[in-house]
Structures are given as C-alpha cells and as structure tokens.
C-alpha cells in the first residue's frame, strides 16, 4: 500500500485528511517494519503533546478496517504495518530483534485442509517469528 492509495481509500470512505493521520501514515510508509501504538506516540507527542493512545488506536483501527494497515500481535502487543501490495497469496517472516519483515510465498493450507476434511476454513494467517540473517550474525 502506498500513501496515495491510502488517502484515496480514506476519502472514498468519508474520512478527511488531518495532520495526525498524515503523520501516522507517513511513519508507516517510511518503514517496512511493524510499529506499535507506543512507537507512534513517541514520535507524534513531539508535534501533538496532547496526543493519546485512544486517538492513535482509533486511527489504527480505522486503517485496519479499511485495509490500509495489517495487524499482528507480537509479545502480547498489537503491531501494525502498511498492507502488502503484493498480488499473490503469501505470508511473513518477522524478525523479533529488528522488526524487519520478509515475504514467504509458501502456504501450508493445503496440508492443513487435508487434516480438516469436514471443516470449512474461511480465513487464515500464518507468520513465522525469529531472527533475520543480520540479527543472527550480530549475536554470534
């Protein structure tokens, strides 16, 4: 997702362009890592001293509901990143050290579907967590 497309989606759904939304989206556009509300708050408080977690979470929830951001839970905390622009089905490897995300084009659902023959799977999410090559070599 690029920021231009994000603004189109927001506009099409009746949301106005605000300075806070713009700063939040810019932070996501500038990284390929997952960010937390705490990450956003530490930066946004500089320009908006009265900024609260409620405001951030409201905007994040809107962005997730509109498909602008995707969400995952890491270490018990909600993390967000720009929605993938990739046209093909894929999953992610997430480095727990630096936060970098790598696309994985393999999907285990065929194997899992065989184990659940009488079930109707409606959706799935598959993520792998660990340390990327750079982080593995830094700790050696």
From TrEMBL:
Subcellular location per the Swiss-Prot or TrEMBL entry: Cytoplasm
Keywords in alphabetical order: Cytoplasm, DNA-binding, Iron, Metal-binding, Repressor, Transcription, Transcription regulation, Zinc
Recorded GO CC terms: cytoplasm
Protein name from the UniProt record: Transcriptional repressor
Database matches in InterPro entries: FUR, Fur_C, WH-like_DNA-bd_sf, WH_DNA-bd_sf
MF terms in GO: DNA-binding transcription factor activity; transcription cis-regulatory region binding; zinc ion binding
Organism: Lysinibacillus halotolerans
Family of the protein in this entry: Belongs to the Fur family.
GO BP of this protein: negative regulation of DNA-templated transcription; regulation of secondary metabolite biosynthetic process
Coiled-coil ranges from the UniProt annotation: none
Residues that hold Zn(2+) according to the record: 95, 98, 132, 135
UniProt remark on cofactor binding: Binds 1 Mn(2+) or Fe(2+) ion per subunit. Binds 1 zinc ion per subunit.
Binding site for Fe cation: 89, 110, 124
Keyword Transcription appears in the UniProt entry: yes
UniProt cross-references to Pfam families, sorted A to Z: FUR
Superkingdom to which the source organism belongs: Bacteria
Cofactors (names): Mn(2+); Fe(2+); Zn(2+)
């Amino acid at each position: 997702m690029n920021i231009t497309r994000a603004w189109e989606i927001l506009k099409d759904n009746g949301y106005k362009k605000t300075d806070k939304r713009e700063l939040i989206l810019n932070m996501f556009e500038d990284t390929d890592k997952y960010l937390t509300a705490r990450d956003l708050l530490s930066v946004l408080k500089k320009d908006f001293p009265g900024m609260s977690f409620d405001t951030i979470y409201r905007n994040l929830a809107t962005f997730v509901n509109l498909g602008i951001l995707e969400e995952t839970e890491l270490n018990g905390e909600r993390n967000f990143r720009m929605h993938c622009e990739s046209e093909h089905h894929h999953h992610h490897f997430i480095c727990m050290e630096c936060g970098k995300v790598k696309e994985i084009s393999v999907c285990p659902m065929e194997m899992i579907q065989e184990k659940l023959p009488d079930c109707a799977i409606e959706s799935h999410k598959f993520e792998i967590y660990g340390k990327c090559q750079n982080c593995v070599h830094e700790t050696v």
